[in-house]
Write a structure and sequence with these properties.
Number of helices: 8
Strand content: 15-25%
Low-confidence stretches: none
Distance between the termini: 30 Å
Structural class: alpha/beta
Mean pLDDT: 93
CATH class of the largest domain: Alpha Beta
CATH superfamily of the largest domain: Aldehyde Dehydrogenase, Chain A, domain 2
Helix content: 25-40%
Number of domains: 2
Largest sheet: 7 strands, mixed
C-alpha cells in the first residue's frame, strides 16, 4: 500500500509504463483527470465516480419499510457513500404521510462518536467535507426548498472536537435545484414530489450520474418497469440504494463510470487480458496430454 496526494502518488502511478491497469474511485472531476493521464499509455482504466442516487416511493408502498430504507440510505455512513440515497421521489398521494414520518425519524437520529453504543450517525470525514455539506445546505435554502429538519453544524460539548452535522432533510424540492442534482456526500436528503411512476423515473434519470436506484412498491409490474427504464448500474426493489453484494458487478452509467464493473466475475475483465489460443492436433504434436495449467 502506497499512500500520498495526487501529485506525489497518483500522477506517477497513472503515467508510469509499468502500470497497466488503473482502478480509480473518487469524484467525476478527478476521474476525468486520471483518464486523461492514463490515455497516452493506452492503459486499461476503470472509473468509479460520483452518484446522486434516487429512491422512488409509490402510493402503494409500505411506508414504514420505505422510511427505514430512506433513513439508512440517506444517513448511513453519514451519507458518505457513492451509493447513498440523497434523493427521495415520493408519489403525491403519500407525500405528506411519508414526509411527516421521515422528518420525525431523521430529526431523532443520535449523532456522535461511532464507537459509542447507541450512536446512529457519525461525523463528516474531514473539515473540508463538512464545509461542503454546510455550503449545500445554504444553497438549498437560497433555492427555496423547505428545510424540514437539521441544517446546522453541531459544535457544542462533545461535538466541539469533530466534524459533526445534523441529519438534514429538504422537502418540496424541485428536480432542477442544485441540491437535487449535485453530489453532496453528506447527511442531506432532498424529497421531491411526483404524480406517477413515469414522472418518478424521469426525475431519477434526470441527473448526470447513474449508479444506484431503488423503488418501493407492492406492484411487481411497476417494479419491473422501473428496473428496465431507470438507467443505473445497480437497482433495488423495496430496499435502499446503499450497499452491494461482492458476488455481483458493481459500477454505474453516465458520469458515474466508464462501462467497466468491479466485483463478481465482471472484475476479471478489468484486471486481466484475454488471450486466444489455437492448437492444431493434426500435425506432429507429440504430447498425449496437454498441461492446460501451463497455458
Amino acid at each position: 500500500m502506497v499512500t500520498g496526494d495526487g501529485d506525489e502518488v497518483g500522477t506517477p502511478l497513472t503515467t508510469d509504463a509499468r502500470v497497466r491497469v488503473v482502478s480509480f474511485t473518487g469524484s467525476t472531476h478527478v476521474g476525468g483527470i486520471v483518464n486523461q493521464a492514463a490515455a497516452p499509455g493506452f492503459k486499461k482504466v476503470h472509473l468509479e465516480m460520483g452518484g446522486k442516487n434516487v429512491i422512488m416511493i409509490m402510493e402503494d408502498a409500505d411506508l414504514e419499510l420505505a422510511v427505514d430504507g430512506c433513513l439508512w440510505g440517506g444517513f448511513g455512513t453519514t451519507g458518505q457513500r457513492c451509493t447513498a440515497a440523497s434523493r427521495v421521489v415520493v408519489h403525491e398521494r403519500v407525500y405528506r404521510a411519508f414526509v411527516d414520518r421521515f422528518v420525525a425519524r431523521a430529526g431523532a437520529l443520535v449523532v456522535g462518536d461511532g464507537l459509542r453504543p447507541g450512536t446512529e450517525m457519525g461525523p463528516s470525514n474531514s473539515e473540508s467535507q463538512l464545509e461542503t455539506v454546510m455550503h449545500y445546505v445554504k444553497i438549498g435554502r437560497e433555492e427555496g426548498a423547505t428545510l424540514a429538519t437539521g441544517g446546522r453544524r453541531l459544535e457544542e460539548g462533545a461535538f466541539a472536537r469533530g466534524y459533526f452535522h445534523e441529519p438534514t432533510v429538504f422537502t418540496d424540492v424541485q428536480p432542477k435545484m442544485r441540491i437535487a442534482r449535485e453530489e453532496i456526500f453528506g447527511p442531506v436528503v432532498s424529497i421531491i414530489p411526483c404524480r406517477s411512476l413515469e414522472e418518478a423515473i424521469e426525475i431519477g434519470n434526470g441527473v448526470e450520474y447513474g449508479l444506484s436506484a431503488s423503488i418501493y412498491t407492492q406492484d411487481i409490474n411497476r417494479a419491473f418497469t422501473a428496473m428496465r427504464d431507470v438507467y443505473t448500474g445497480i437497482f433495488y426493489v423495496n430496499a435502499p440504494t446503499i450497499g452491494a453484494e461482492v458476488h455481483l458487478p458493481f459500477g454505474g452509467t453516465k458520469n458515474t463510470g466508464n462501462g467497466h464493473r468491479e466485483a463478481g466475475v465482471a472484475a476479471l475483465d478489468v484486471f486481466s487480458e484475454w488471450k486466444s489460443i489455437y492448437i492444431d492436433f493434426s500435425g506432429r504434436l507429440q504430447r498425449a496430454q496437454i498441461d492446460t495449467e501451463s497455458l
